[in-house]
Backbone:
């Protein structure tokens, strides 16, 4: 259970949509680039609903066994150990499959019966089906922008979810987020948000992903803790974006003019 209320600034109608999805137990898909508050939003909603949140960061090696469970050898015995998905299904927790498209195909197969009217999980190693607890809900995130790999979600998977796109908030809200997250002064927050807007508009740089709210929060934290502003912006915003020396130089010059 999440003990301290996670700070989340609503961007659109996502809170309302999530509440209704939860009430109807329709799986929820969050789409959007890195650092746009997807994880923070789910933590916030789990807290508001008083539900346990189990997060799984999916990667190429994530298999259904990792989620469902496995036999382990303990002394002379083999015992069954529930995986996080099985635990969530039994307890009625919210499970958050972060970057679901990265996981192995058997993961997708295993959630299909859970995300339609059946709401049941088949544990092949035990040969049983378990019915999901009535509070159980599945949430997943997916970053459609990634160029690397060709990982897409099949329509038969996507169409099991209510889906919402997350993006960078408008300037006023982003300033508020920076101030709330870091206690940086209003003037600096405003400048950081202006820098972000400028870089986000430079589509010709060909960056895979541009400045996220997360990077701005990091820059604001460094500034608030006393690191010089220009250095903070360089190490927290410019350097994480690219390794191209020319682009780094150009962006550093641009930022130096703005802060
Ligand atoms: N709407 C928001 N309200 C409050 N904080 C936010 C919001 N959006 C972004 N943030 C800040 O940005 C940081 C990054 O957000 P978060 O970790 O939720 O991103 P994400 O979308 O899950 O990214 P990733 O796809 O990389 O997992 C948070 O730690 C928080 O400081
Ligand atoms: Mg996240």
Residues:
């Amino acid at each position: 259970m999440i003990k301290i209320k996670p700070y989340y600034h609503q961007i659109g109608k996502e809170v309302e949509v999530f509440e209704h999805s939860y009430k109807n137990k329709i799986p929820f898909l969050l789409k959007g680039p890195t650092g746009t508050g997807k994880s923070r939003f789910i933590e916030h909603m789990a807290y508001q609903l008083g539900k346990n949140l189990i997060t799984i960061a999916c990667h190429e090696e994530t298999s259904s066994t990792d989620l469902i469970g496995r036999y382990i050898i303990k002394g002379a015995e083999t015992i069954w150990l529930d995986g996080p998905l099985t635990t969530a299904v039994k307890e009625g927790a919210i499970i958050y499959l972060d970057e679901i498209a990265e996981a192995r195909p058997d993961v997708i197969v295993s959630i299909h019966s859970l995300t339609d009217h059946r709401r049941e999980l088949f544990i092949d190693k035990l040969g049983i089906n378990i019915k999901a607890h009535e509070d159980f809900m599945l949430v997943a995130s997916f970053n459609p922008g990634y160029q690397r790999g060709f990982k897409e979600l099949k329509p038969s998977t996507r169409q099991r979810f209510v889906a919402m796109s997350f993006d960078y908030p408008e300037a006023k809200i982003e300033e508020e987020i920076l101030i709330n997250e870091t206690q940086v002064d209003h003037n600096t927050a405003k400048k950081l948000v202006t820098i972000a807007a400028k870089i986000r508009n430079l589509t010709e740089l060909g960056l895979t992903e541009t400045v996220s709210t997360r990077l701005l929060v990091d820059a604001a934290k460094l500034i608030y803790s006393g690191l010089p502003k220009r250095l903070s912006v360089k190490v927290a915003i410019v350097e994480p974006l690219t390794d191209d020396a020319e682009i780094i130089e150009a962006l550093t010059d641009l930022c130096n003019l703005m802060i």
Notes: The two ends are 41 Å apart (CA to CA). The longest strand covers residues 69-74. The mean pLDDT is 94. The pocket of adenosine-5'-triphosphate (ligand 1) is lined by residues 7-9, 11, 34-40, 143, 177, 181, 213-214, 217 (CB under 6 Å).
